[in-house]
Design brief:
It comes from Pedobacter frigoris. Helices cover 67% and strands 6% of the residues. It is mainly α. The protein has one domain. α2 runs antiparallel to α7, α5 runs parallel beside α7 and α6 packs across α7.
Length: 232
């Protein structure tokens, strides 16, 4: 049982890693962009994780851990911020090749505005739930910056691909939060979340995951563009 979290990390990344070398995908050729992106994003989320763990917003069940820790976090939790983004950015890389048609610019803009408004209102209404508030305000801020300052052109494609990613997300995050297990690998303080769950998954995790993957992709695409400019 103590290898449960480690095995979840392993099985999340092993197939994307193997197929990174497929000649039609060649994801490994983008590693120079991916690794700086995942390290920078990981630092942000690990700092967040360390703080929330220290104040009891969430914690970890020792029966599913090997026992090694870094910054008072299980080593499996540190690996989570590499394995999950790797699998998700790889999936984006693959689907980006094949998806040619997405939402229109108008529909994307309406959806983005509505999502930002809902996140801000949700954060304001849930000010007593620190996980909800930080997640909703954080994601709304990232979307505002991406949409109106960076003016990225791939938001519509991101929404579609993240919707696809929600299916494996439910499997992986479901296991971490206790679906099919005697106890959750990661537990949440009920006083700091809304209490709405998808199976055993707090609804906040959907938006937390969106922010995690979106920041990784923002930096990943920035470093790819930087690499391409240097090669000219």
């Amino acid at each position: 049982m103590k290898y449960t979290y480690l095995l979840i990390d392993f099985f999340t990344i092993i197939v994307p890693f193997i197929f990174s070398f497929h000649p039609k995908l060649n994801f490994y050729k983008t590693w120079k962009a991916f690794f700086p992106a995942v390290i920078l994003t990981g630092l942000i989320f690990i700092i967040w994780d360390v703080y929330f763990t220290s104040i009891g917003v969430w914690g970890f069940n020792e029966q599913y851990l090997i026992g090694s820790r870094l910054l008072n976090l299980p080593i499996e939790e540190i690996l989570f911020f590499f394995c999950i983004p790797y699998a998700c950015v790889f999936t984006y890389h693959c689907l980006d090749i094949f998806i040619k048609h997405t939402l229109t610019k108008k529909i994307e803009s309406i959806f983005t505005v509505m999502l930002i408004i809902c996140l801000i209102l949700g954060g304001l209404m849930s000010h007593d739930n620190i996980y909800t508030t930080v997640t909703f305000f954080g994601l709304s801020a990232i979307l505002l910056i991406a949409k109106y300052i960076l003016k990225i052109s791939w938001l519509a494609k991101f929404y579609i691909i993240y919707t696809v990613l929600l299916f494996p997300f439910i499997i992986v995050n479901g296991l971490l939060t206790g679906t099919g297990l005697e106890n959750p690998v990661v537990w949440y303080n009920e006083a700091e979340i809304l209490g709405f769950r998808i199976l055993t998954i707090p609804i906040e995790d959907v938006f937390y995951g969106m922010g995690l993957i979106f920041i990784n992709l923002l930096l990943y695409k920035y470093f790819i563009a930087l690499t391409e400019r240097k090669s000219i």
